[in-house]
């Protein structure tokens, strides 16, 4: 088609086999859109196109993606608010005729429907990171790392130590929006995690969100990137990462906090001695 349709916060470029969505930058543009930058949606990933009235004299053109075709949509699992839907273009009502034309033209090009066996839309690119309420989470494309916060992590997570998960040892990701009550990001291990705690704040394979921690525009692209890596990789043996040398000041701070937990009765004498030896071994 080779045409362009501009709306609020985004511009759609219609190509013969895809729709390229370029998101605007600005204080009124949803932060998720700004974080994504742009998204190329192959028409093979699109199941339908809708055009519906919007708010305050607008209409909304929306791509309906096939189940399993997009890691971002799969990770979001229907939790995004309407205004944060990256595949919804809002235009003034006086441009409804133009939007309707593009909707009709797109429908003529659609040939696929039903669930997709693989992701057809590219995931946000690693490396990615964000700060949760109880940890700093990072993903380099092959491994997820959680580094616990002294002030936010539960004693169960602290006792378990900082975590590192190769994507080859995962089968999925569970994301619960920080805009809902008790949001979190939870990794699903290949062994099924039969013994994992029910509550994410006690599960070392999870990080929890709070006010200002784990915002949608940071944690959702992170979850989508991990999910895409999990889907793309088969059971390839993971190469253990070389243990990182710790900053002595960081080790001293951790031992100090360990002593506080010990004095408070949250850590036994045996646990205190064992964990202290582990920390000293990292120097």
TrEMBL record:
Provide the DUF4429 domain boundaries: 12-106, 137-226
The record's annotation in InterPro entries points to: DUF4429, SHOCT
Look up the domain of life of the source: Bacteria
Q: Where is the SHOCT domain?
A: 253-280
Q: Which Pfam families match?
A: DUF4429 (PF14472), SHOCT (PF09851)
Q: What is this protein called?
A: DUF4429 domain-containing protein
| Species the sequence originates in | Streptomyces pyxinicus
């Amino acid at each position: 088609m080779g045409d362009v349709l501009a709306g609020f916060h985004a511009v759609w470029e219609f190509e013969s086999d895809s729709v390229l969505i370029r998101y605007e930058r600005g204080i009124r543009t949803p932060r998720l859109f700004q974080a994504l930058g742009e998204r190329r949606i192959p028409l093979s990933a699109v199941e339908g196109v809708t055009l519906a009235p919007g708010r305050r004299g607008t209409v909304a053109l929306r791509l309906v993606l096939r189940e399993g075709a997009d890691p971002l949509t799969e990770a979001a699992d229907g939790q995004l608010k309407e205004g944060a839907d990256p595949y919804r273009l809002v235009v003034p009502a006086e441009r409804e005729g133009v939007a309707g034309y593009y909707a009709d033209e797109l429908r003529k090009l659609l040939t696929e429907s039903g669930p997709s066996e693989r992701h057809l839309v590219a995931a946000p690119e690693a490396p990615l990171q964000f700060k949760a309420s109880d940890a700093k989470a990072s993903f380099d494309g092959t491994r997820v790392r959680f580094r616990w916060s002294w002030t936010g992590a539960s004693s169960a997570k602290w006792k378990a130590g900082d975590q590192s998960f190769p994507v080859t040892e995962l089968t999925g990701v569970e994301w619960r929006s920080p805009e809902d009550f008790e949001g979190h990001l939870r990794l699903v291990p290949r062994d099924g995690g039969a013994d994992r705690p029910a509550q994410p704040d006690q599960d070392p394979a999870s990080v929890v969100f709070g006010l200002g921690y784990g915002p949608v525009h940071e944690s959702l692209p992170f979850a989508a990137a991990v999910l895409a890596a999990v889907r793309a990789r088969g059971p390839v043996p993971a190469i253990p990462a070389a243990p990182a040398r710790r900053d002595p000041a960081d080790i001293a701070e951790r031992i100090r906090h360990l002593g506080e937990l010990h004095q408070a009765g949250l850590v036994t004498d045996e646990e205190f001695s064992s964990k202290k030896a582990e920390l000293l071994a990292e120097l």
